[in-house]
Structure formats: structure tokens, C-alpha cells
Amino acid sequence: MLTAEEVLTSIGSTAALADVEKLWDDSMAAYPGAEKIPFLQDDAITSNRKATGFGDEMDGPFLRAAAAIRANEALARLSWHCFWRVFLSDKGVYPPSGWPEPEMLGEDRGLIYLLPAIGYVPLVRENHKRLGFPEDVTMETIAQVRHYCDDNFRRGHDGRPGIYLNQLGWMRYYTTDPYVRIGRLEFWLQPSSRDIYVYRNRKTGKTIAFPPAGVTYLMDGNRLGKPEEYEGHETFTSKLEYKDGCVIGTPLSPKGYAIQEEISLPLVDWEMVFSKGDVSLGMHIPSGGGMDFEKCADSLKRAKTFFTKHFPDTPPKAVVCSSWIFNTQLQEIFPPEANLCRFQRGLYLVPCASSPGEGLWFVFLRGWPLDFATAPRETTLQKKILDYLAEGHRWRGGQMFILMDDIDNFRDGTYLD
Ligand SMILES: CC(C)(COP(=O)(O)OP(=O)(O)OC[C@H]1O[C@@H](n2cnc3c(N)ncnc32)[C@H](O)[C@@H]1OP(=O)(O)O)[C@@H](O)C(=O)NCCC(=O)NCCS
Question: Is residue 383 lining ligand 1, measured as CB closer than 6 Å?
Fold first, then answer.
């Protein structure tokens, strides 16, 4: 059996050995042989290519690369190891990190990882079949790997196909969890990990969210990242307690900041409708297609119908999401009518701890810190964010929720009356 080191040596670089070595023996124990790797079979490739929505012009590169990989024991083992670690490992998901692209594959070198990635098609199908999801939803969901390639990897690699290794780990969820794309957005049924407590007035329907006690906020109600980042800043700390039949706490404005005051809500009038641990739909925003308000509204509405139908015993209470897309600084950067601003105004925004480079990878396809001088300025989004950062602003991420009961009423200003 070839060792991980021998494989990398034959490819030309052992720089990634420490990562490639992880679970090598486990994946090699399951290695079916170069000619029998399921996702490198010609008929499987054509079928996976079609299912993921790649055009038939990709048959040539995919089949050519697969033949070259099958003919080279080191490449075949590396490609298998990638697939096994992402999709089959029973010891946790270990997406590849820093693995080399074999130069001998020329322009097809990114396909050594894209082929195992599109190999997730039968696994997603099986998962969705088990969950009783209809074929059209499965097909919509499966296309995500093409977006990873066409919207992200090609954009960062002069148009050649492949997949960023850091996006592979996420793909496992499509094969194991109730995770689907419905229209513009993706949704994942799971218990909410967001530490918020949402109350609704039984008569008026007004909604007020509280953070837990003890959260540090800047005086403008925003949060930073690590605790040491607050040194030298004036701050306040949230309060949350239950006393005399009331919940007393530091409220969060639906506009996405904490308000330095205490309010008291009598529990006879206010019901807690969502909190940590409740079933929710984690929302994810796949690349491409813009954030057209009506498309997003349609996606939310269809998700509500879908999950209510498929999980009648555990219906979600809210849709939640953490992303740079809910960073309220976007409202300083873009005009009020911009898609991103309108979408934010339709949701209850929640400040959260975040890093100064939160989510910027999705815009610049580069890690933090960004070199402002060389970061791409090809799109309006990139230019505006770079100009904003150059003014010295500390970038943030954000969170949001929308209660399931409010989705039919989703509009610009759902929580702003
Ligand atoms: C970024 C995004 C939310 C923009 O939505 P939108 O404001 O409706 O965007 P539009 O499609 O109208 O594009 C607006 C501008 O941003 C650019 N743009 C869109 N997505 C971009 C991205 N991921 N990176 C860089 N620029 C992008 C467009 O090219 C356009 O610029 P132009 O006017 O110079 O052509 C969305 O298109 C997207 O694809 N995001 C990537 C996925 C993501 O970040 N998910 C969250 C992960 S936590």
C-alpha cells in the first residue's frame, strides 16, 4: 500500500503531509482499487455531471481527468482519500486542507477534488429518499457543487474548474441531514444554537428578543470578537432575569443592536415563542443569483410549507442565520433600496460576536487579513466593501431570525412597526 508520503512525493510536494496523513489508514482500508472507485466510473461521472447541472461540455474534461487519475495509483488514492474523509468517514468530517493540485493533470488539475465532490450525488439522493423528499427538491439541492465550482473556484482561478477545499466539509451535511435548497436559499432543520429569547405579545403580536445575561456590548449595541478586543472601549452588559411574573432584560432592536436599557414584560401578556434549543431552520445563502427580495420571500414561504409537511411532529419555530450578509454595516455601504438592505429590513437582526474579516472570504475568495492594495476590485460589492474598510471601520458579521408565524407576512419592515 502506498503511504500518504509516497503519494505526495510522487505528485511533487509533501507540504500537506500532516493533513493528508489524517485517517489515511482508515480510508485506505476501504480503498476499492483505482479501477473500481465509484465516482471515477464513466457512467457515474456522466450521471453526476447531469444531476449537478454542469453542461455537457464538462463531460470531456471530467472523463479525461478520471481516466488519468485511474491510471495513476497515487492520484487515485488521493482522490479516494478526499471522498472518504468528506463523505464516508465515521470518525468525523475532515475536509482536505492545503492538498496539492497535481500539475501532471494540467488544466484539469482541480478535477481531482471536483470529481469526488460531484460523487456526492448518489449519497444526497439516498439521504433525501430516506427523508421522503421529492425529486425536484433533491435536484435543486444537488446543484450546489456546481455553484461552488462556477461561482467561486472558477472566479478565483482564471476560469478553470475545481472546488475550494474549504467548501468540501459543508457538503457532508447534504448527505446526512434534512438540508435542502428551496429556490434562492438553503434550509437545514436543526435545534437552534442561537442564544436568544424571543417573546411575543399575546394580544398585539409585537415581538421582542433578549440576549442572555452577561453579554458585553459596545455603547452602540454592537459586539466585537474576542473578549480582549473590548479593552479600551466603553461597554455595557446585558441583563436577563425572571422576577415577579415578569421577564426583565436588555432588549435587542430588530435593527440589529442591543439597547442599553432594561425592560420588563409581564409573562401573562408575553409568551416566549423561540429560544435556544428549539427546532429551527438554519438558513444558508448559496452563491449566485442575487438576493432579489421576492425570490427570497418565495424561498422562505416554500421552506415553511415544505418542512411543515415533512416534519409535522417537529415543526420549526423560526428561520435563523449567521452571516456577513446580516452585518448592519451593509446599510451604511449600500442605498436603502439595495437587495441586501431590503432583505435585512424584512428580518429581526441580532448582533453577534464576529471577527474583523467575517465572511469576507465569500466576497474576495481570500483569507483575512486582506491586503487592500491587491484584493480584487472587480465588482461593485468588492469596491464598496474595500472602500469602507479603507476608511478604518472594523468589519462585523450578523445574525437574524424570522418566526415561522411571520413568514407569510414577510415584508420590508416585518418587525419594524
Ligand atoms: C453577495 C450576494 C449576497 C449579493 O446579492 P445582491 O446584492 O442581490 O447581488 P447582485 O447579484 O445584484 O450583485 C451586486 C454586485 O455584487 C457583485 N457580487 C455578487 N456576489 C458577489 C460575490 N460573492 N463576490 C463578489 N462580488 C459579488 C455582483 O457582481 C454585482 O456587482 P456589479 O454590479 O459590479 O456587477 C449574493 O449574490 C452571493 O452570491 N453571495 C455569495 C454567497 C454568500 O456569501 N453566502 C453567505 C455565506 S455566510
Answer: no
- Give the predicted TM-score (pTM) of the model: 0.96
Pick left, alpha or beta for residue 359 (phi over 0 → left; psi -120 to 50 → alpha; otherwise beta).
left
Distances in whole angstroms, Cα of residue 260 to Cα of each of 159, 211, 218, 352: 50, 12, 10, 16
328 within 8 A of 257, measured Cβ to Cβ: yes
Amino acid at 411: R
The cell for 52 is 449537478
Ligand 1 mutation target, pool 144, 151, 287, most atoms within 8 A of CB? 287
Q: Is the CB of 354 under 6 A from ligand 1?
A: no
- How far is the C-alpha of 9 from the C-alpha of 289, rounded, in Å? 41
Task: For the chain, 417 residues long, give each residue's pLDDT as a single digit of tens.
Answer: 899 999 999 999 999 999 999 999 999 999 999 999 999 999 999 999 999 999 999 999 999 999 999 999 999 999 999 999 999 999 988 999 999 999 999 999 999 999 999 999 999 999 999 999 999 999 999 999 999 999 999 999 999 999 999 999 999 999 999 999 999 999 999 999 999 999 999 999 999 999 999 999 999 999 999 999 999 999 999 999 999 999 999 999 999 999 999 999 999 999 999 999 999 999 999 998 899 999 999 999 999 999 999 999 999 999 999 999 999 999 999 999 999 999 999 999 999 999 999 999 999 999 999 999 999 999 999 999 999 999 999 999 999 999 999 999 999 999 998
- For residue 285 and ligand 1, the question of a CB distance below 6 A is answered with yes
Q: What residue's CA is closest to ligand 1, atom 38?
A: 287
Burial class of 107 by CB neighbour count within 10 A (0 to 12, 13 to 18, 19+): middle
**Rounded CA gap, 156 and 345, in Å?**
31
Q: Cα separation of 258 and 237, whole Å?
A: 10
Q: H-type helices in 264-367, by residue range?
A: 293-310, 330-333, 339-345, 361-364
Residue 191 Cβ < 6 Å to ligand 1: no
Q: Is the C-beta atom of 379 inside 6 A of ligand 1?
A: yes
Residue 106 beta carbon below 6 angstroms from any ligand 1 atom: no
Q: Let me know the angle formed at the C-alpha of 112 by 106 and 118, rounded to the nearest 5 degrees.
A: 130
